[in-house]
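Input.
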Amino acid sequence: MQVSLNPVQIFKYGAEEEKSETARMSSFVGAIAIGDLVKSTLGPKGMDKILQSSSNNDTVQVTNDGATILKAIGVDNPAAKVLVDISKVQDDEVGDGTTSVVVLACELLKEAESLVGQKLHPQTIVSGWRKAVDEARRALTESALDNGNDPEKFQEDLMNIARTTLSSKILTQHKDYFSTLAVNAVLRLKGSGNLDAIQIIKKLGGNLRDSYLEEGFLLDKKIGVNQPKRVENAKILVANTPMDADKIKVFGSRVRVDAVSKVAELELAEKEKMKDKVEKILKHGCNVFINRQLIYNYPEQLFADAGVMAIEHADFEGVERLALVTGAEIVSTFDCPEKTKLGQCAVIEEVMIGEDKLLRFSGVKLGEACSIVLRGATQQILDEAERSLHDALCVLSQTVKETRTVFGGGCSEMLMAEAVSQLAARTPGKEAIAMEAFARALRMLPTIIADNAGYDSAELIAQMRAAHAQGKHTIGLDMVRGEVGDVAELGITESFQVKRQVLVSGAEAAEMIMRVDNIIKAAPRQRVPDDRCH
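Output.
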């Protein structure tokens, strides 16, 4: 009996497999490359990236937001995709810390690479990391402060968090101004955390300092011709219905007639149908009608005759938000006026912002609703300002729910690293080496923040480490002066929720990539000629 020594092909033709060391190296290289890409954007002195898309008229984005950068780049490496996903989850979950979480995972993997080179088993490393995460989380929780019961101190905490969040964004030059804007907007929500009630409107022109908070709701639409420009005690019907059937749809239907007069009769029938629809709408007792779709000339004229303000083409987001803040329901049929819930608002009027007219809804039913109007010189600045403000609003709304805060400026990372190092010193066995590596990765975050500013990171981190070893747990980086300082006095505060999420998500992603020992890529789909053409 002869045994064939040819390798057995178990995968489809074209499928690829990478095994053990090769697979692990491939994962490490991909993930570390992603970390190195966003690393330079970390901290108050981080640099920006220009993202240019090939489609969509070569749109250009200028940003230093980790999630935005990673969303825009197409990655092929599976491990790199994991890091892109955790940055997206961080953005959805808490709104900030998207760069930190990727950099932490990347630094952990760099440490893991050298540990695997020292012949430590990946499972031993993972086991050590898990104990390190528990210890770091315990140290972070113990260091957290809670001023939730003292409104004055809590508002100061919120201001400090907003300043810290905005200090690494484009709005850093006006961080006090925008921090006040963001805190006022979030405090209006009265703890509900519903960010849909805060609308951000971008208008080109002026400078960032011209931005302001407008109470109520702004809608970027025009009022119909010959309709009232101001309505008091508005009863608003919000609808999503076609109001464009005042012309016969010749292209959509085949109609045979023996005289032109018959076409006119058809058009008249269409008009009567539209008139009936408008009368049904007016029976609801509304004095403002807002539709998501177009309103053609004839129904617009009927609304004008009835003295009703009609607004067309309010985009879907506008209609949804409008229904939320005015307490209305979006309707599509108008047969049961008694069951329809109308929105309410004290005054609707036109206002000028820059060179554009907008509609302002004042005294809306949802009292916490407000609009932030952003002004700026270019579209890129406006887009980046919106992203920065959105991050700040997300973090603040999370902090209102989870009122604990921790110190920023690399202070919390050093504190967690110190706790993990002490645990490693008490732990026998190889796991202690993995714990030490975890502490080193945590210390890399303040190191990178200092490096990005061009400061002497080795000197600063050594001073911080010595201070924390002596029990001075409020020592962190003062990025203005380029030295270590007491972050409690400097007011560098961050949300406990954000820090905890960065720690847990970063460690979990690194652990997941660490466990990989095989990468199998499916065979590309073969294109088959379409025989139906023949």
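Residues 260-282 form the longest helix (23 residues).
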